[in-house]
Predict the structure.
Amino acid sequence: MSGFPGLSFLGPKSKNAVVAGGLTAFVFGVYFYTMKAVGGTDELQMAIDKFEDQKQVETDPKVTAKV
């Protein structure tokens, strides 16, 4: 890590820990950003609910179909 003069005084294991911490922080940042970006609507869950409601209407003759 000759490109980072501030890390030259650290041992190899300490440098690995710093790099691992930085990578972990980056991964968690990307994960939470992605969850925030897509978390507004859950289209898959809405489609599943619609399918289950439609399936229930087809199997239950007491329920009148909404056309």
User: Anything to note?
Assistant: DSSP finds two helices and no strands in the chain.
